Amino acid sequence: QVQLVESGGGSVQSAGSLRLSCVSSKPIRGSRMGWFRQAPGKEREGVATIIEPSGKTIYAESVQGRSTISKDNANNSWYLQMNDLKPEDTAMYYCAVTWDGSAHPPLSPLRYAYWGQGTQVTVS
């Protein structure tokens, strides 16, 4: 069983920044890693994803240009740097990972097998 531990959430004012971190108990070599968010009453949505080993990234339109996903193989970790945060970014943020291929789009939650417990981001 793979365990993911997230950190870095918190409360910030509009235009502020946060960096979320996720650590995997299994080496991330060959995986696809992602960040998702879910606001109250809304479906979970993909924010950003990065694939190993190419490092190719994909972003949701809502965060494009304001967020950067990155990875650190040595520490089995990936990150989401979020800048110019807006109140509409308020949500529980989850990291997720999979080592399996899938027909689901890269930002679909259905593509991912393992999930973190979530970290709250509140922007006011």
Structural account:
It is built from no helices and eleven strands. Strands 2, 4, 5, 6, 9, 10 and 11 form a seven-stranded mixed sheet that branches. β5 (45-51) and β6 (57-59) form a beta hairpin. By secondary structure, it is mostly beta strands. The mean pLDDT is 97.
Share of β-strand residues: over 45%
Helical residues, percent: under 10%
Provide the structure class: mainly beta
Broad shape: globular
Number of strands: 11
Give helix and strand order, one letter per element, not per position.
EEEEEEEEEEE
Uncertain runs with pLDDT below 50, 5 residues or more? none
Largest sheet: 7 strands, mixed
Distance between the termini: 37 Å
Count of helices?
0
Question: What is the fold's blueprint, element by element?
Answer:
Blueprint: E1 4-7, E2 10-12, E3 18-24, E4 32-38, E5 45-51, E6 57-59, E7 67-72, E8 77-82, E9 91-98, E10 114-115, E11 119-123
Parallel strand pairs: 2-11
Antiparallel strand pairs: 1-3, 3-8, 4-5, 4-9, 5-6, 7-8, 9-10, 9-11
Question: Summed up, what is this model?
Answer:
Helices cover 0% and strands 47% of the residues.
Notable features of this structure?
four-stranded antiparallel β-sheet; seven-stranded mixed β-sheet; 47% strand; mainly beta; 124 residues
